[in-house]
Amino acid sequence: MIRINRIASKSLRRTLTVCALSIAAAFSGISPAQAQTQDRLAGLVQPIKSDKPFKIGVAVVHLQDDFYKGIVYGIEDEAKQVGAEVVQVSVAGAYGNVREQFAQLEALKALKVDVVAIAAASFSGYDNALKALKDAGIKVMAVGIPVGSKHVDFGVAQDDQDIGRALAKEICGSGKLGKVLTIPGPAGAEWARLRYVGFTEQAKKCPGLDVIPGAFGGSLTLQYGLSQTSDLLLRQPDAKYVYTPVIALGMGAAQAIRQQRKDVKVVSSSMVKESIPMVKDGRFLGVVSEPGIIMGRLAVQFAARQISGKPTPELKAADSNYPYAYFNVPPVLITPANADKHPYGIYEIPPENWKLPAVR
Fold first, then answer.
1. Cα 83–chain centre separation
2. Contact indicator for 117, 56 with CB cutoff of 8 Å
3. First to last CA, the chain
């Protein structure tokens, strides 16, 4: 039984040549139910079972969107597949709540789990907390977002700069250039910074694209995206696009655009059910998938390999981007052209009947 510890309430439109088989399978019409047994890993690794059972503790930033829910669902369901058990899920509540998450990591250590999966509330400052886990013989896996610590066994995420580049390339290839308003995201969130860097650097390569710099800060809510976009459109009424790093801000931006009756398109990242019709009707030019479910599943698969002493050749060695071995899930861009056939149940959105257990 999973226990929920709530301390607070709370990439390129690129042909995936490196994993053509996985994308072909993912888009082959497999239902979510079939995907559980046939293609739940989208062909990225061969599934295994662990040679011995192990226990997993999970610490995530929040559970307010399908991305983190998808990660938890992927970890929980894949644990059953490999012969592991998720014994506790802890929720920090928001980005920046590092002290709360430190306490949660200490609690997971006291539970004597074998593996901790962490989606860190901040990029920096985790060395001591993660070293304490390592000293206790616990493996650490960073899932969904990077953390700046060498005391991590491996990470599974996406290349956030690739996400930004994907969105800039989609705008550049649209044939309709002009001003792009930007809402970069919260201060201190490394993933948001990297996406913005990728977007702005790629946009410089597109003549005729004029990116209006934005300021980091604020929240990740629809309301913040709406208010910021409304203000930006008043200052830049001739804008053609709005960039946001994540879908809640993007949905707020789309709502502000509709209220002002503007012909402005939004680009963003991370799909949720509510945004699917907004992609279909063209309010979003493109949204990069953030496959939280697959990330969670892959993390458990790599943990099972390490627990069993099996090789993990799929993991790349530590480099200037990650201070630990890592696997980046190849991104895919969702547009009005493919929004009907994208396999959301494999990639991003947990089953409707899946519920987190009650707080204990």
1. 25
2. yes
3. 10
Q: Rounded to the nearest 10 degrees, how much is the dihedral formed by the CA atoms of 168, 227, 159, 101?
A: 170
Q: How far is 292 from 1, CA to CA, in rounded Å?
A: 22
CA atoms of 106 and 122, how far apart (whole Å): 17
Phi and psi at residue 249, in whole multiples of 5°? -65, -40
Alpha-carbon dihedral angle through residues 129, 147, 321, 191, given to the nearest 10 degrees: -160
**Residues 45-78: pLDDT tens digits?**
999 999 999 999 999 999 888 899 999 999 999 9
Q: Give pTM, 2 decimals.
A: 0.80
Contact indicator for 253, 183 with CB cutoff of 8 Å: yes
- DSSP class per residue in 285-337: EEEE---HHHHHHHHHHHHHHHHTT---TTSBPP-SS-SSEEEEPPP-EE-TT
